[in-house]
Fold Iron(III) transport system substrate-binding protein.
Amino acid sequence: MKKFLAGCVALALSMPAAALAEELVIYSGRGESLVAPIIAQFEADTGIKANVRYAGTSELATLLQEEGGQSPADVFWAQDGGSLGAIAPLFADLPAEVNEGVAPAFRNVNNKWAPTSGRSRTLVYSTERVADADMPASITDLTNEKYKGRVAWAPTNGSFQAFVTAFRVAHGDDAAKTWLEGMIANDAKVYRNNGTQIEAIANGEVDFGLVNNYYLGRYIARDDKFPVAQTHFQAGDIGNLLNVAGAGIVAASDNQETARKFIDYLLSTTAQQYITLQGNEYPVVPGIIGNATLEPFAKLQEISPKIDIDQISDLEGTLALLREVGLL
């Protein structure tokens, strides 16, 4: 038996590298239902085996910081730019050409990570219980008495936390704390994520929710009479934050060449077309057929607050603030 095992080892060592199956460890803060088909197609197209760990983006960002140089991860695929910025020091530098092909609004100029899709924060609302006169002009209006007990939010969600970080950047920590405490005092209802907020509106539990733009389309695709719609706040409002999902290569990885293949794949026409048509997100490279259900990107740029994605990297400060006000 020992001779047999020794022979197997010797055979493996003598095989050309190309003959050995490539594998990749991906930490994904993107939901499995959305990205598993992309990863499966990547495996089919490249022959590379992907081992994926799914969890919340902020949870995985914290895990990567704890693991440091011992992390088994090769790639971190996050759902928001804030988390990517927070752990950018743990990423290997990407070649400049990776981001050069990306639309300027999404580009990471420091080449520590690559955007994979764009998304906007929106206000979702009941089409059955919300009148035009009930629509808030600003996200800060939601602390008013007329919205008491009517608004859903998801404080543990990574995209919401990136929004809070952007709020802090735009208006200061004191203003962000005042808004959070105002929402709590106004009996904002806590939900696990974006989808559960939308379902709560449809079920009559609440009338409004704060979510990313791409979730509602999944419900409407199954039921064109689904009783929820979405809108933006007034132009420039922080509630209209334009953010990205993105991916970086973990510097501690011994598998960086294979990891780069995955990054390149996410920016390919195949993946970008899937992300926008099936995922209802904005493509980040030119030449992709747009999703007709999405607000035109030019309009989105007009109404979005002027926040540099690289400025929303203080995730720890946001988590500390959320703990201080009792939301974590």
Observations:
- The chain has two domains: 24-118+243-294, 120-241+317-325.
- The first strand starts at residue 23 and ends at 28.
